[in-house]
């Protein structure tokens, strides 16, 4: 069998991180070149041809439009190239949720695109990076991996990028998914899908934006007033995501200010600061009367990403924004 040819796009993160000691806490994410990582992988004897391409060597807290543009272009190139079977993106875990969701929204599903990261630096005792990478290669090499949207491989699981979020700061098993569960369990020697590909032949849902508009997340806190909403409008926010209490709640004065923002053409989406769960329309907040949108299953970080993509596509009407969030 001809080994699959996999484009590996490096961005940095802990998977490419190195510290001064195998037992110390301090390290620099993205300190290792992708070539060095791949050289380590050679020793694992993986049955795949890995083609490395450095996009960045950063902690993913610093990722932004320049890197996303480069990643999207490289993925589109790989999708069009018959010699490439799949794409693996090495990425910091802090914002894997955002990059994964942005690519999920803007790429066709024809070939597997997989993000992989690590919670422990490459030279730390008990590092998880090589195992996660070997698992990602196992997934990328499988014909049944296409047609599932962008995926995140972490902790011996294959997670749908649109449902995954980082839920722990340092545990190896750091990611959770909502509302759907993992797509598969994976180890370097086994891969068990829980169902058939569910997004076969899907085109990109949205065009990749030329620029991303300023969309802010406002976290609600007990006793707050409406001044932060006014401040966000004052710096030119083109959309606001409320990380509200419970099912997207906020003090009445804040909701009133958000309603005024919505009436002025700045779409407002109510998400939740709670770790997991749906935010539905018209539960405690009268979204119909206030002109607000309910984030449904998307948490604040992903709600912000979808709202940026929508606003960039000229979609700001509350009903249309709600329809996009309802698609989940
Ligand atoms: N903050 C860094 C990043 O997201 C390191 C964390 C990690 O990769 O797990 O790139």
Description:
It is a single chain. This protein is an alpha/beta fold. The chain folds into 2 domains: 5-193, L-asparaginase, N-terminal domain (Rossmann fold); 215-327, Rossmann fold (3-Layer(aba) Sandwich), CATH 3.40.50.40. The protein is 29% helix and 22% strand. It is built from 9 helices and 16 strands. It has an 8-stranded mixed sheet with strand order 4-1-5-6-7-8-11-12, sandwiched between helices. β5 (86-90), α3 and β6 form a beta-alpha-beta unit. It is globular, with a radius of gyration of 20 Å. The mean pLDDT is 95. It binds glutamic acid. The site of glutamic acid has 12 residues, from loops. Glutamic acid binds at residues 12-14, 29, 59-61, 92-94, 117, 119.
Tags for this model:
328 residues; Rossmann fold; 4-stranded parallel beta sheet; 9 helices; binds glutamic acid
Set down the secondary structure blueprint:
Layout: E1 5-12, E2 18-19, E3 27-28, H1 34-42, E4 49-58, H2 65-80, E5 86-90, H3 96-106, E6 113-116, H4 129-140, E7 151-154, E8 157-160, E9 164-166, E10 175-177, E11 184-187, E12 190-193, E13 215-219, H5 227-234, E14 239-244, H6 252-263, E15 268-272, H7 287-290, E16 293-294, H8 300-312, H9 318-327
Parallel strand pairs: 1-4, 1-5, 5-6, 6-7, 13-14, 14-15, 15-16
Antiparallel strand pairs: 2-3, 7-8, 8-11, 9-10, 11-12
The structure holds glutamic acid (GLU).
Glutamic acid (GLU) binds next to loops.
């Amino acid at each position: 069998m001809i080994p699959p040819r996999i484009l590996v796009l490096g961005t940095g993160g802990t998977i490419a991180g190195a510290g001064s000691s195998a037992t110390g806490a301090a390290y620099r994410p993205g300190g290792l070149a992708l070539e060095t990582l791949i050289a380590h992988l050679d020793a694992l004897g993986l049955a795949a041809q890995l083609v490395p391409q450095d996009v960045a060597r950063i902690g993913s807290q610093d990722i932004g439009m320049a890197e996303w543009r480069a990643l999207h272009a490289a993925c589109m190139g790989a999708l069009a190239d018959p010699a490439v079977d799949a794409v693996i993106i090495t990425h910091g875990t802090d914002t894997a949720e955002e990059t994964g969701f942005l690519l999920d929204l803007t790429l066709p599903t024809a070939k597997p695109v997989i993000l992989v990261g690590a919670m422990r630096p490459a030279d730390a005792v008990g590092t998880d990076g090589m195992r996660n990478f070997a698992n990602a290669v196992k997934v990328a090499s499988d014909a049944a991996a296409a047609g599932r949207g962008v995926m995140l491989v972490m902790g011996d699981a294959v997670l749908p990028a649109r449902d995954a979020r980082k839920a722990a700061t340092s545990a190896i098993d750091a990611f959770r998914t909502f509302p759907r569960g993992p797509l598969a369990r994976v180890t370097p020697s086994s891969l068990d899908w829980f169902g058939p590909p569910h997004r076969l032949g899907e085109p990109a849902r949205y065009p990749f934006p030329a620029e991303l508009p300023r969309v802010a997340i406002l976290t609600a806190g007990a006793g707050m007033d409406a001044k932060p909403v006014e401040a966000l409008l004052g710096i030119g926010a083109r959309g606001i995501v409320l990380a509200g209490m419970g099912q997207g709640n906020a003090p009445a004065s804040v909701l009133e200010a958000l309603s005024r923002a919505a009436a002025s053409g700045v779409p407002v989406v109510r998400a939740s600061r709670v770790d997991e769960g749906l935010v539905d329309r018209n539960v405690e907040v009268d979204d119909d009367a206030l002109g607000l949108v309910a984030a449904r299953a998307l948490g604040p970080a992903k709600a912000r990403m979808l709202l940026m993509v929508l606003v960039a596509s000229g979609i700001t009407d509350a009903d249309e924004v709600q329809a996009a969030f309802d698609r989940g």
